[in-house]
Amino acid sequence: MALAIEPCAMGKPVDPLQISNVTGTDATWSWNKPLNASSFDVTVTRRKKKDVMIDHHVQSALSITVSGLQAEASYRVAVRSLSACGNITAPVSLSVMISAVPTVIPTALITPSSTPQPTSAPTSTPTITVGPIETGTPKP
Predict the structure, then answer these.
(1) Which residues touch 74 (CB under 8 Å, ≥6 apart)?
(2) What CATH number has the domain bearing residue 76?
(3) Which domain holds residue 67?
(4) 72-125 confidence digits (pLDDT tens)
(5) How large is the C-alpha radius of gyration of the chain?
(6) pTM, whole model, 2 decimals?
């Protein structure tokens, strides 16, 4: 008797990726748990002419807070969903510029399937959700 092996379902990308609690030295990136995701591959980079990776790990939590950020620098978090059998999705990333006065500047590469979601936060904490970025060839 032969055993039938059920293929493992592919996970979906995180959607939406959000930034909140931005201060002069800290920022929190968070996301919703996609279908079939068991963990998340997270990469944190400091944006320069050549990006510098400052952290890379796998976690099950739905957020990451990065501390020790420097003023006048841009940081990016990229998150990929991992399924229980090891399938991995394309990354979704979102950047923030840390300034002397906390400001969130969206510079995201979001999957085209993203839909903007309303968020709520205390009025003193900037929160951002970035919607879809159009892809394809520009029309004249």
Answers:
(1) 46, 47, 95, 96, 97, 98, 105, 107
(2) 2.60.40.10
(3) 17-106
(4) 899 999 999 998 888 889 999 999 888 765 455 554 444 444 444 444 433 333
(5) 17
(6) 0.66
